[in-house]
Amino acid sequence: MPSRRSALRWMAAGSGLAALTPKSSSAAPASPLKHGKIKQSIVHWCFERGSKWKVEDTIKAAKELGCVSVEGLAPQHWDLLKANDLKCAYVGAHGFVKGMNQPAFWDANLKVIEERINQCAEYGNPNVLSFTGFADTTAQGGGVVSLEQGKKNCIEAYKKIIGHAEKKGVVLLLEHLNTRDSAEMKGHPGYQGDNIDYCAEIVRGVDSPNMKLLFDIYHVQIMHGDILRRLESCKDIIGHIHTAGNPGRCEIGADQEINYPPAMRKLLEIGYTGYVGHEFIPTKDPMVGLREAVTLCDVA
User: Residue range 210-215: average pLDDT?
Assistant: First the structure.
């Protein structure tokens, strides 16, 4: 449990938040949520990048829209989240280049993963994010690893830490990313885990209820499509969901190709109870895009 000192920090953090408002002229006061069957979350980095939002802006938006989490925030921001009754649905550990597919990076990665697991357990946050890494990290002090060896290495590495995650009641997530889009942060050419079935094999190979798949609908659409059947095929191992519009990792809506309401209904059908994080880079007023996303994903 957090210490008394942490509790005092939560109170101090919360007292200043009411004076902050998201940097948007279109924010309406009423939450768009009606059904609330999907636990919706906002991924902060997108709005920091696209709209120059501060953490306080994203928290304010989450509260206004009825979201229950602001995710991807480092632990130093968790007191502020706690003060506003919000979770951090996932926290990052190591990066997506130097991942778990190469033993050269195991020591550093496992150290920070263990630290994040402990922090999540203390604050009651559910997930720590991890990556396969790039196939070729020669320039980063690693080497070149084949698909098969990369899979074996990932499974071996995760088995070194998964017992600690189980003990602490925290889930370790593996994220699938697309390699087709070369635009910065819209795709990740060189990433080894660009096949959803490959990532699913790693997760299942670890064979733990605390090892799950981060199913990013945007990335899966670019690499594979067939979203609804892929959600079905992964239903036993999905631990987190991300959204964004395609093409362009833009807002969710009528101007892009992914139809999100059926995907959300599919999640309810397969019994998914985790978070759905909105991870699009805004191209217009961010509150307009977020409000639309929250409304589209608020299915009955």
Answer: 98
The pLDDT of 87-91, averaged and rounded, is 98
Buried b (16+ CB within 10 A) or exposed e, 15-40: eebeeeebbbeebeeeebbeeeebbb
Query: Would the pLDDT of 165 be above 50?
Result: yes
Per residue in 128-144, pLDDT (tens digit) is: 999 999 999 999 999 99
Query: Three-class SS string for the chain?
Result: CCCHHHHHHHHHHHHHHCCCCCCCCCCCCCCCCCCCCCEEEEEHHHHHHHHCCCHHHHHHHHHHHCCCEEECCCHHHHHHHHHCCCECCCEECCCCCCCCCCHHHHHHHHHHHHHHHHHHHHHCCCEEEECCCECECHHHCCCECCHHHHHHHHHHHHHHHHHHHHHHCCEEEEECCCCCCCCECCECCCECCCCHHHHHHHHHHHCCCCEEEEEEHHHHHHHCCCHHHHHHHCCCCEEEEEECECCCCECCCCCCCCCHHHHHHHHHHCCCCCEEEECCCCCCCHHHHHHHHHHHHCCC
Q: Which two tokens stand for residue 179?
A: 């390699």
Cα–Cα distance measured from residue 88 to residue 103, given in angstroms and rounded to the nearest whole number: 29
Average pLDDT (48-71) is 97
Distance CA 67, CA 216 (A): 18
The two structure tokens encoding residue 276:
């759905």
CA 170 to chain centre: 14
Res. 255 pLDDT band, cuts 50 70 90: confident
User: What burial letters (b/e) apply to 280-300, b meaning 16+ CB within 10 Å?
Assistant: bbbeebbbbbbbbbbbbbbbe
